[in-house]
Design a protein that fits this description.
The chain contains 13 helices and 12 strands. By secondary structure, it is of the alpha+beta class.
Amino acid sequence: MRKVELNMTQLERYKTIKELVDHGGNKKRVAVKLGISLRQVNRLINVYKVRGKEGFIHGNSGRIPKNKLSADLSNTIVQLYTTTYKDENEEFAFNFTHFKEMLEERHDIKVSTPTIKSLLWKENIISPLAQKSTKRKLKRKMLEESKQLEGKTNEEIEELIEHQISISDAHPRKERCKYFGELIEMDASSLKWFGNAVTHLHLAIDNSTGKIVGGYFDYQETLNGYYNIFYQILTNYGIPLAFLTDRRTIFEYESCRKKDENKDVLTQFGYACKILGTELRCTSVPQAKGMIERANGTLQRRLLQELHLNKVATIEEANKYLNEVFIPKFNKKFGIKNTKAKSVFEKSPSKKEINNTLAIISKRTIDSGHSISFNNEYYIPGIDGSKVFFTKKTKCLVIKTFDNRLVLSIDDKLFDMIKIKKVKEHSENFDIDRVDENLSYNPTKYAPPASHPWKQKSYNNYLKNTKNGVNKQNAGLLC
């Protein structure tokens, strides 16, 4: 039987489906984790049962599509249109169909009109025969790329009938979720909680029971704060089914609110949720996550006074008081004792897996010195202390885990990051009294005097060779 090799994506699908078939589980959670539909999950289950591990290899794996344009050809087409076939005043500009014909007649390049349209759209170029709707789309695209639409809102929808508002403006009262861990609402509130500096309290509350499941103070509303909340939830309760948050860029990119079905743009937090199979829901309407908004108001009226009363002055003291004193007291007083609210938290992964999942991932490229730059420092890939060298422009990922370990991912393999020091700590020529910390004794390097015969003889031989015009050294003369 031949050995079946899977890439990371295929291997993750195989392991997840295998676990689902062998030990059971929630198909919807698996669908969220793999980013596929429930129908696709059922199809993969059948593939696993019939073909096993081999069935997860795509039929076109390793094949290059015959109709794929090379990067050089794509650049040539764009360059030809922008330099030869496009007029600045658009008086003599070629439309895309005409341009396709010219490419075939004069340059022997055969491509379709939609391909040309797609290539030039990426360069913000449209046909001179484009309709007004296409021109408006291009203008909107360029404004979004230049971030000139930030803070802008669409016109308010007019009321349909007097005293009746539109559905988008209505915020009706909603039922709570049935199970504990089915939906976790998260948000942060900024205030001078202690001292004179403004800090941000990151908070997470369960929609079913109204219990606070995580809280963390930080100086800014950042990924670090929400990662600490996620860490508390995973270690204390397990993996929740879904999060409900606002539309901060920590959770969702501003330019990708209207996602296509084939688009998979994820933030660092969103990627961690996908790995664990937790759904991430975002909303720009505060009333949609009213429970966390009310909890923030309650804490601003209670926690603020208690921190001042207990003379909390540092962020470390505030986090300790919040999690050890205030949150248990809050949950006991305001949490709903719902006997029907069974927990649907999945079993929490190991601490090592949590640290690796709640990671910050950064893209890097190997430079001409076989190294990468990260946080103003240079690193070389390594395995067990030995350096490994890759060619220039090799793409890689720097992974900073939750416990601040640095790992480098290249070609689906993990490597250590060996730091390159800017200046040597020890000089072999001058630091002769350096103590080796790994030795139990204090060695001293013996420095022979100038009259030492070995040195003298070596020097004489050097003078002799120099006088005779011989620029070579005989190893035997140095004995």
